[in-house]
Amino acid sequence: MTAAGRPAVRVRTRKDLRGERRRRPPRCLGHLIAAPLWPMHGANLGTLLRTCDAVGACLAVPRFPWVPEALDRGNTLRRPACVHWVGDPLRWLERSRTAGLHVVGVELAEEAVRLADLPMARMPTIAVLGHEREGIPPEALDLLDTVVEIPMIGTGASLNVAVAGSLVLYKLAGFA
């Protein structure tokens, strides 16, 4: 107890934190996938890769020539990450839906679910993230099962892709 009668704050050690974490599956189960399929900035991919590790998700990225280097630079954990390489984003989304995955798009759209109301993913789910400026391409919008919107009160129209993706991944994983 402190002098004011409140319990003393004890900072948890790395060993404490490791012991309290949920156990990570030994391999990719594909239950939660972040899909920044139209990326513009490599730094966002590195940030999303770290978030995927934190929530036990995988990352699906296009086969752009600069993406492997961006992922290597962003992988501060220095161990292999779960990455799915996507050739044609639209065909990949179509095949994923046909295989039974739930496709959630992060976009400003009518009938969008507010982030606070987005339920935890109870089935294999893909969180689709659009281009930093253009959003999710119109031809991909019909491939979404759900659209989630992140409410904002500031003057900007949207958040950075890595930040938006991280918020949605934490919500889908049941951590928020």
Automatic annotation (TrEMBL):
InterPro entries: Alpha/beta_knot_MTases, rRNA_Methyltransferase, SpoU_MeTrfase, tRNA_m1G_MTases_N. Pfam families: SpoU_methylase (PF00588). Keywords: Methyltransferase, Transferase. The keyword Transit peptide does not apply. GO terms for biological process: methylation; RNA processing. GO terms for molecular function: RNA binding; RNA methyltransferase activity. It comes from the Bacteria. Residues 41-170 form the tRNA/rRNA methyltransferase SpoU type domain. Signal peptide: none annotated. This is RNA methyltransferase.
